[in-house]
Amino acid sequence: MLVSLVFTAVTAACVSATGMEPQAVGPEGTLLATVYKSCKNKGDVALTFDDGPYLYLEDISNALVAAGAHGTFFFNGNNFRCIYNLAESVKYAHAHGHMIGSHTYAHKDLTTLTSDQIHNEMWLVEQALQRIIGVTPAFMRPPYGLYNDLVRQVSHVRNQSLVIWDFDSGDSTGSSVTSSEALYAAVASKNPSNVLAVNHETSETTAHQVLPYAISTLKAAGYKLVTVAECLGLPAYQHVGTPGTPDPNTWKC
């Protein structure tokens, strides 16, 4: 059993000049997972969607695919909905070329948990994704963007990198459609080399109003809309295998 230590939480606001915190050696010689806070490739925008699977997944997927784009869905196991109850939506996203990542099981603040508890939060959603679509994710987004050295330590053991963001649409804090669209317009006009954007799949306005605007605005500015793995030049999954057979005794939250 790993020893649970107390570390200072690092938030998404603490972005390094390189856009990442590389794999490092932590306390007592433990290895810490890499943390990515921005894309690497010039001209790429990675649109990501947290907190699903939820009711608007297919709408988001269809909007992206219609524009010749792909996004990244960071799924919970049991947050707004039980992932097994929306297994067909998970399959839909995967079948349409979107990247699937972990957002942990119950959307808990990982910096408040012990090592064993963090492992469990990560394992339960990994197990669900293995059962539903046969993949083991290579990337995890910590809920609220909060992590510490213990979270990075456990992520390294589970062979996953952390993904934060460098642009927030504001939909998780109740921003209006006008406000979120203005944020996308502003970042497009600033013309950064690349963008790693966080949105939330659970927002109806994001799915039906802000996302179409963001897609058209970013494409008009010359950006290519890709997955996180593509914008980093890394594999999306540790393992790709055969999905499991649904079992009512185990496929439940």
From TrEMBL:
<feature type="domain" description="NodB homology">
    <location>
        <begin position="43"/>
        <end position="226"/>
    </location>
</feature>
<dbReference type="GO" id="GO:0016810">
    <property type="term" value="F:hydrolase activity, acting on carbon-nitrogen (but not peptide) bonds"/>
</dbReference>
<keyword id="KW-0479">Metal-binding</keyword>
<dbReference type="Pfam" id="PF01522">
    <property type="entry name" value="Polysacc_deac_1"/>
</dbReference>
<protein>
    <submittedName>
        <fullName>Carbohydrate esterase family 4 protein</fullName>
    </submittedName>
</protein>
<dbReference type="GO" id="GO:0046872">
    <property type="term" value="F:metal ion binding"/>
</dbReference>
<keyword id="KW-0119">Carbohydrate metabolism</keyword>
<keyword id="KW-1003">Cell membrane</keyword>
<dbReference type="GO" id="GO:0098552">
    <property type="term" value="C:side of membrane"/>
</dbReference>
<keyword id="KW-0449">Lipoprotein</keyword>
<keyword id="KW-0472">Membrane</keyword>
<feature type="signal peptide">
    <location>
        <begin position="1"/>
        <end position="17"/>
    </location>
</feature>
<keyword id="KW-0961">Cell wall biogenesis/degradation</keyword>
<dbReference type="GO" id="GO:0005886">
    <property type="term" value="C:plasma membrane"/>
</dbReference>
<dbReference type="GO" id="GO:0071555">
    <property type="term" value="P:cell wall organization"/>
</dbReference>
<keyword id="KW-0336">GPI-anchor</keyword>
<dbReference type="GO" id="GO:0005975">
    <property type="term" value="P:carbohydrate metabolic process"/>
</dbReference>
<keyword id="KW-0378">Hydrolase</keyword>
<keyword id="KW-0732">Signal</keyword>
<dbReference type="InterPro" id="IPR002509">
    <property type="entry name" value="NODB_dom"/>
</dbReference>
<keyword id="KW-0325">Glycoprotein</keyword>
<dbReference type="InterPro" id="IPR011330">
    <property type="entry name" value="Glyco_hydro/deAcase_b/a-brl"/>
</dbReference>
